[in-house]
Specification:
The structure is a homodimer.
Chain A (H helix, E strand, L loop, with lengths): L16 H11 L3 E3 L6 E3 L1 H20 L3 E2 L5 E3 H4 L3 H7 L5 E4 L2 E4 L4 E4 L4 E8 L4 H11 L8 E10 L13 E11 L2 H21 L6 E4 L11 E8 L5 E11 L1 H5 L3 E3 L5 E3 L1 E8 L1 H10 L16 E6 L2 H21 L4 E3 L7 H11 L3 E6 H5 L2 E6 L5 E5 L3 H26 L1 E3 L3 H11 L2 E5 L4 H11 L2 E6 L7 E2 L6 E2 L2 E5 L3
Parallel strand pairs in A: 3-9, 17-18, 17-19, 22-23
Antiparallel strand pairs in A: 1-2, 4-8, 5-8, 6-7, 9-10, 10-16, 11-12, 11-24, 12-13, 13-16, 14-15, 19-20, 20-21, 23-27, 24-27, 25-26
Helix pairs in contact in A: 2-6, 9-12
Chain lengths: ~500, ~500
């Protein structure tokens, strides 16, 4: 069983899941801690994965009619306060700029903040950009002809979290935030749902992470939204992870920033809004969905390097022979848009290289030795199952191309099976507790629809309502906690 | 003459050059003012140009062995102070984060900074990232095997400028900053020079902006650098614009952050460094290099849209006929990677569209009417010269492809001619003043090599030494200002 293999640099999942996650993030070169509290450094290998996510999503956004723009990092405190729910949601985690100059304190011989350079109005480092963007849209939107406005921004944002974890929860993170403006509520809702489907498509077909699409309860809604749509994924430890959200904002921000348009009859109406975002948090979801005790496991579509070829040789002559045999394979793979590296570094032994590429989650590893060449075959290993096969050299290219597709598919199916098997339909509080405490996964149970009950369940079990699935059937029942009448089941879980 | 044509939304250059620039940036949809002092909004059309710059540069960086990563937005004040020259250079223009929470002031009923959430150590919003990056490199570099480290970052930075101008000088701007670490001074210098050449190549061959490569005097050097290399361009109003810089940092940051490596003999040495960057300032250079009184003029290689086709028609039938004729042309152009749009919007008249695309600098405009089709020809207009030609439909695709190349080349040559004609070799102070005050452009004159003289010239004329050109010949002479002996001429100009 693959699960029993270990790498001594990585704590096994069974021993300490949380440490396992940190070990992979650090040892595979995805991210590093920084000297700034709660801020991470995204290392080159991790950043390359993020770039691939960006490229794929960016194309999906553009294919659905969106354009990119860039808005200021800073938000005046007064803007921030204009939408009441919004400021309430974010006020407690804001980095605040109060001064714009340092100076040398001659007596202490140190650099200090220049108190004379105090800002008249404090600036908030954006935790999200609805306010600064809707303040701008007021100038950009006059008539129905200016709508819809379909804009996305790739940016860094800051939320001063008290407990941080690499990728999953950091004070500064990278994300994209779409902000669209529409003439009707229907059109805005359609947009919010469209982007939810784009996110689900990306998570499932690129990251191989199956998700449940749903809507949030009022408690879990984005601060300022009328409706929050989300995709929820399930990690290997049975905890849920919110992988993306899309909000129908109603006219809340249009009213707060007085953004009106003249409709076809010349009447002024407030504009309807959506916003939607995914972040570097997806990196955490990616790690926790597929990886094992040997390190990272990456779906081929998001892997910076899809295939590595490691020569097993003694001396220059054998190396040259191997090279001459594999170069045509490399060439042919590149022509099929497969990223491939021939690792001829002579400072490291093959065993060390194998462990390294396993750690980094390279989907396919090819080993080529002298004897293999004599038999006109090469050894092809897949990272996800750790199985190996001897393949005739002449079939190698097609074999690898098929294998990459197979790995992509197989990773999704494995994760989908885990998700499906870990949704528990329960009808008693005892069963609920048993799943939450002992099994992990989602609990699909009746809820009386009140925030009060939801909060009590959270207090007692740390489980929250992750979502009400889209297309959820109505069903009469009794609330799992209060016993009061319920109209539908919802999905509970402990979550990241 | 094209120069006499005007667009009533744009102030002519002859009337007010500075206003002309602002008009184009605003009216062509490149950027907008924001509610935050000194911060701009990059609008979708402007951002698309910036994305094209990023894509081209990013490929050039990767082709020269660099990888991307991401470091924190915030820098602890103490880090910032470690390199003495560096902090001196940036201390006066820093945005400082002092608190991490807001709260509701119950008595005033307003949101205020929570004084209980004061940071122990203030955080500086990065104006550049040498300090936070070199503090990280200490953990990443142990041995010569870890070198070179060739990392680039795409990021936003903040420098609290007092007088700001869209793209040219903004409090927040977007840029890339390369930060490399090397085992020897020679290798670091080679890297700094390599990246200077990459920048020059990009400016000239993609943006069609000719540049002079050179080194800065001590006065104009980056704060913390041993040597600053730069590319300098000349705008249409005769002012110079620094379009990119590359710094050899010596061991300054390695010493400040104690970054040492074991060399091949096992001895510890300080690491050698470079940093290099270009920013959204290039957008300003692009506008001012090529545009005219009708609006933006864009080199085809950086234009978001290269060709627009405008139908001149009456009624649905004519439109359908035109469409059937131009669709194969559009298809063929797309296959040749030409971006093309067929503007069949029936809410606007052709004349309005012509003016709009001229404003936005679309390099080639094709107009097709019923009579043209009868003659089996279409009208192709180029934005840069405003000339038009009737071209047989069957030749249209090849003609357009050649024309795009021709426009790219021609824009560069026109700008190159302007640059060459505006470098004045002068030997007297009177001539110097005449060029600076009346002609504009670069003055190539003797200088005694002292910062004192350089600063006096700046004080009296606002002209600074833009650079000492690479490969500048040594030549005995007398300083234009002090009359003292000089070993070489240098390039002076007023600059943005």
């Amino acid at each position: 069983m693959s699960q029993t293999l270990t790498n001594k640099e990585i704590t096994p999942r069974s021993k300490d899941y949380s440490q396992w996650y940190n070990d992979i993030v650090l040892k595979a070169g995805l991210a590093d801690y920084s000297a700034v509290r709660g801020c991470m450094i995204i290392k080159p290998y991790g950043y390359t994965i993020w770039e691939k996510m960006q490229q794929t999503l960016d194309k999906m956004f553009k294919d659905t009619g969106h354009v990119n723009a860039y808005f200021p990092l800073f938000i005046p405190k007064s803007f921030f306060s204009k939408e009441a729910t919004h400021v309430e949601g974010f006020a407690k985690e804001c980095a605040v700029v109060t001064h714009y100059r340092l100076k040398l304190d001659e007596s202490k011989k140190e650099i200090v903040v220049d108190e004379e350079a105090k800002l008249e109005e404090e600036l908030i480092v954006r935790p999200t950009s609805e306010t600064i963007i809707w303040n701008t849209y007021r100038n950009w939107i006059q008539s129905y002809r200016d709508l819809p406005l379909l804009i996305n921004q790739w940016a860094n944002v800051v939320r001063w979290e008290m407990r941080t974890r690499l990728f999953l929860r950091t004070a500064e993170f990278l994300w994209q935030e779409g902000h669209t403006a529409h003439a009707t509520a229907e059109e805005a809702i359609e947009e919010a749902e469209r982007m939810l489907h784009v996110y689900a498509d990306f998570a499932e077909n690129t990251l191989a992470i199956p998700v449940i699409k749903g809507i949030k309860t009022a408690n879990e809604r984005f601060a300022g939204a009328v409706e929050t749509y989300c995709i929820e994924a399930l990690m290997q430890d049975g905890k849920a992870l919110q992988a993306g959200t899309s909000h129908f904002l109603g006219q809340n921000f249009a009213k707060a920033f007085d953004v009106k348009f003249a409709n076809k009859n010349g009447e002024l109406e407030y504009v309807w809004a959506t916003s939607w975002g995914v972040s570097t948090r997806l990196m955490g979801a990616l790690v926790m969905s597929h990886s094992d005790d040997l390190g990272l496991v990456l779906p081929p579509k998001i892997a910076p390097l899809q295939v590595v070829i490691v020569p097993i040789y003694k001396g220059v002559e054998e190396m040259e022979e191997i090279k001459s045999q594999v170069l045509p394979i490399i060439q042919a793979l590149k022509e099929k848009n497969v990223s491939v590296k021939f690792d001829d570094d002579d400072k490291q032994r093959p065993g060390w290289k194998f462990a390294q590429y396993e750690m980094q989650g390279v989907p396919v590893r090819i080993a080529v030795g002298k004897r293999d060449l004599q038999n006109k075959q090469i050894e092809i290993a897949r990272r996800d199952t750790l199985s190996k096969e001897l393949v005739p050299i002449e079939n190698a290219v097609d074999y690898v191309v098929n294998l990459l597709n197979e790995i992509q598919k197989s990773l999704f199916e494995k994760a989908k099976k885990r998700l499906d098997e870990n949704i528990y339909r329960v009808d008693t509080w005892e069963e609920f507790l048993d799943v939450i405490e002992n099994k992990g996964g989602f609990v699909y149970a009746h809820w009386d629809g009140t925030s009060e009950t939801e909060l009590k369940i959270k207090e007692e079990t740390k489980a929250t309502i992750r979502c009400i699935p889209l297309g959820n059937p109505l069903e009469e029942g009794k609330c799992i906690y209060s016993g009061k009448p319920s109209k539908q089941r919802v999905l509970f879980a402990r979550a990241y």
